Amino acid sequence: MKTVSFIVPVYNTGKYLSECVDSIIAQTYADIEIVLVDDGSTDGSGGLCDEYTKKDARIKVIHKENGGLSSARNTGMDIAFGEYIAFVDSDDTLKVEFAEKTVKALEGVLKEKNTGICFSFCDCETSRCTLDVSRFKGKECMTEDEFIAGLEDPVSRDYLLGVMACNKLYYRPSLQNLRFPEGRLHEDEFFINDVMGNMERCAFVAEKLYIYRDNDEGITGRKNSLDPRHLDVIDAYGKRAKLFLEMSKKAPAESVVRNGLYRLCRMYLDAAGDKTVQVKILKKYREFYKEHAGCMNGKKRLKYALFLVHPVFSKLICR
């Protein structure tokens, strides 16, 4: 039995932390380690982490200065020893069979000769996407092309399941030196780009084994939706478009560019009344369009160029 390392970044989530850690301890797959990375918490979460080391020898704790989610995940990756790695956000929980079933799926993939990144991933319970339809269902093992096809629609359930880091179990040796980008929001969007650039194949478990808590107070929550740092996601889209072109996948590249431009128009409309934010969005739109519009056909380029003529056309683009 190979060890699964659960990496849990912790920052001021004291009211949820016990529920999260208890759900990992309760896994039916016994050979696990739990790495709690206290990222400079100020609400007593760090002390709660220390208490857990007294209850279960499989738990280790690292205390560090606050560096953000990516920094905490990277720190955990540096010390984890398991052959398999999973990430769990400290306000989320797992079903007790998460490890058992994702390990079984991943080991099915590893039976084949692989030279790239291999992983398994599962469905999630989440209020962020109520639609239950998924093209991943019925595909216990899928190729890179099949996985990428699931990312076509950024508001679909497939997109959420494909991009998020926390519903996945990675074969650690295949990750090599891959790390999350520090100092950026939407780190999962960047990380999955690197994964797709090196992946071999993956497996899907069509069960909701990861329970995602929609926290409106977090930086990616609704209450902070106008934070200009959310423009980081557009940089991730740009990297993905370039990656797909390098992989000779023109249709997926075009889809990424359209989605990026549409998202910027939507952000502009949502920021109505905040001129400072709108100016930043408009600047990012110009940069993104100039660099990536060539991926689209002439009609699509013309459509999204309307926003550059006057931002009022964002309503036409987003209707």
CATH-derived architecture of the largest domain: Alpha-Beta Complex
Quantity of strands, as a count: 9
Overall pLDDT level: 92
Q: So, the CATH homologous superfamily of the largest domain?
A: Spore Coat Polysaccharide Biosynthesis Protein SpsA, Chain A
The helix/strand class is alpha/beta
Radius of gyration: 20 Å
Secondary structure: helix percent: 40-55%
Characterize the main sheet.
Answer: 9 strands, mixed
CATH class of the largest domain: Alpha Beta
Total of domains = 2
What is the H/E string? EHEHEHEEHEEHHEHHEHHHHH
| CATH fold-level topology of the largest domain | Spore Coat Polysaccharide Biosynthesis Protein SpsA, Chain A
What is the 3D shape? globular
Unreliable sequence segments: none
Distance between the termini: 53 Å
Describe the structure.
The chain is α/β, with parallel strands linked by helices and 319 residues long. The protein has two domains: 4-211, Alpha-Beta Complex (Spore Coat Polysaccharide Biosynthesis Protein SpsA, Chain A), CATH 3.90.550; 225-318, no CATH class. The chain is 45% helix and 17% strand. The protein contains 13 helices and nine strands. Strands 1, 2, 3, 4, 5, 6, 7, 8 and 9 form a nine-stranded mixed β-sheet that branches. It starts with a strand and ends with a helix. The mean pLDDT is 92.
